[in-house]
Amino acid sequence: MNIAFLTLTPVIGVVGTALYSWQHGFHLWMPLLTLGMYLLVGISICAGYHRFFSHKSYEASRPVQLFFAFFGAMAAQNSILWWSAGHRVHHKYVDRDWDPYNIKRGFWWAHILWIFYKNPDVEFSNAKDLVANPVVMWQHRWHKAILILGGFGIPTLIGAAFGDPIAGLLWGGFLRLTIIHHTTFFVNSLAHTWGKPVFNAEVSARDNWGVALLTLGEGYHSFHHRFPADFRNGLLWYQWDPAKWFIRGLKATGLAKDLVATPPPQIEQARLTAALLLMEKQIASAPHHIADDVRRRFNEAAAHLEQAFALWRQHIDERAGELKQWRATRRQARSYVRQSRREWKLALRMLARVPAAA
Predict the structure, then answer these.
(1) Is there a contact between 265 and 309 (Cβ–Cβ < 8 Å)?
(2) What percentage of residues in the chain have a pLDDT greater than 90?
(3) 55 Cβ neighbours under 8 A, 6+ residues apart
(4) Nearest-angstrom CA–CA distance, 180 and 182
(5) Which of 102, 182, 214, 223 has the largest count of CB atoms under 10 Å?
(6) Angle at which helices 2-10 and 176-188 pack, to 10 degrees?
């Protein structure tokens, strides 16, 4: 069933939509329908299935959970319970045998082939919190009906309102589903193959801005695998992460709370550790005086981070105690983080000049 479904939907979605539009005409409402359905379903997977249900990176109100459950089912990626339980296994065993979409088994295995194999019945022992959630269990029972009636029925009805129900089904149903599938699959394949392991050099996850553009922000995968409980994937304000902005919008309207954000000193420590691990061989082969200077700068960067951690804990205590100076303490902590970054980036630049010096 999986092989047939995932083989036929791209054929119908791409070839069928192109041929039908060529024969019956193209109108602006058609791609707009695809885009609108893509955004509703995509945000339900990224901000819902992934960041809320799988990782509990924030708390969402019941109406928001129902929104995620309804539109997320239209992605044809199984139920919240099944998706989240499998994803938690991926994080626990990433790059190892029990990882369901282990990139070590090949690009195409991680992208789609793993779905073609019939696995034993999934146990939900790692998702007891979701089993206790009535919205999750309701969707688990009805996700196939929602997919058929909502994922294909809604675009057909919208198409009928424009006088062409078949075009609505093709553009908003099959083409949109094909795009959702393969952009989501890119996170398992491309984001574990190409990019930079900025925050964790010990696993295959990579930060890939191209995948982020296609997946509403899920491409900053090195950060996510290092800090899976963070509600952000794109850390910097300019990094493309609509799911992060959507979650912040939910908080601003009172529909979400308790957003988990990793403290800056901890993030910088992960960056420093990853950079040092990647440069170990180059440091070992560098001339002694350069290697010693590089190690000294990395040690100074680590010392600055220790001070940043202490100040960050202090600012949390001050804020809890409603002391006015907590903002100044936080600024000082961030200043030490910036000093740490300057030190280890200077060390990297020194290493980059080693071949020419030798």
Answers:
(1) yes
(2) 78
(3) 228, 229
(4) 6
(5) 223
(6) 120
Q: Yes or no: say if 166 and 183 are a contact pair by the CB < 8 Å rule.
A: no
Cα(351)–Cα(345) distance, rounded to whole angstroms?
10
| CA 149/CA 174 separation, integer angstroms | 13
> How many angstroms separate the CA atoms of 227 and 9, rounded?
34
Residue 113 carries which side chain, given as an amino acid letter?
L
| Tens digits of residue pLDDT in 76-125 | 999 999 999 999 999 999 999 999 999 999 999 999 999 888 766 667 88
pLDDT (0 to 100) of residue 212: 95
Q: Which residues pair with 59 in a beta bridge?
A: 257
Confidence of residue 355 (pLDDT cuts 50, 70, 90): low
Q: CA 225 from chain center: how many Å?
A: 9
What is the sign, positive or negative, of the torsion defined by CA atoms of 176, 181, 184, 185? negative
pLDDT at 38: 97
**Amino acid letter, residue 78:** N
Q: Return the bridge partners of 149, or none.
A: none
Other C-beta atoms lying within 10 Å of the C-beta of residue 40: 17
Helix extents (H) in the chain:
2-10, 17-24, 29-43, 62-73, 80-92, 107-111, 128-131, 134-146, 153-161, 165-168, 176-188, 209-214, 221-226, 242-252, 264-285, 288-320, 326-352, 354-357
Alpha-carbon distance 183 to 128, whole Å?
29
The pLDDT of residue 282 is: 79
At position 352, the amino acid (one-letter code) is A
